[in-house]
Amino acid sequence: QVQVMESGGGLVQAGGSLRLSCTVFGLTPDDYAVGWFRQAPGKEREGVACMKWTGGRKYYADSAKGRFTVSIENAKNTLYLQMNSLKPEDTAMYYCAADSRGWWYLLKDIPLCQPDADYWGQGTQVTVSS
């Protein structure tokens, strides 16, 4: 049984930092793209930062570039999202996802964050106060 579990959300003031963690159980994600999505109230879910499980090229949304960093600790099957210089508009539910078509996206030069990933976590809330 595949499980994707996020942690690390919370309340932070604008300008602060948070690190989200996501551990994947039950699959060998070598060919997968993994990453972070977020959804704010009344808005569509958007891809924030994604990468291939084995490393290499990373995708960042324009809103995340220069502030967020996605990384992987393979030995722990854990994905991280370091978020710095947080803004109130970063407030959202953040989801971790694993997508088995990561190898295809790289082959076709398609952005690694795609909304129809195979496996999703339950989400962790990030709230940034002004």
Structure description:
Strands 2, 4, 5, 6, 9, 10 and 11 form a seven-stranded mixed β-sheet that branches. Strands 1-3-8-7 form a four-stranded antiparallel β-sheet, with no helix packed on it. It is 5% helix and 48% strand. Strand 7 (68-73) and strand 8 (78-83) form a beta hairpin. It is globular and about 40 Å long. The longest helix is centred in the C-terminal third of the chain and has 6 residues, at 102-107. The mean pLDDT is 93. It is mostly beta strands. The chain contains one helix and eleven strands. It has one helix spanning 102-107; strands at 3-7, 10-13, 18-25, 33-39, 46-52, 58-60, 68-73, 78-83, 92-99, 119-120, 124-129. The N and C termini lie far apart (41 Å).
Task: Compile the SSE list and pairings.
Blueprint lengths: L2 E5 L2 E4 L4 E8 L7 E7 L6 E7 L5 E3 L7 E6 L4 E6 L8 E8 L2 H6 L11 E2 L3 E6 L1
Parallel strand pairs: 2-11
Antiparallel strand pairs: 1-3, 3-8, 4-5, 4-9, 5-6, 7-8, 9-10, 9-11
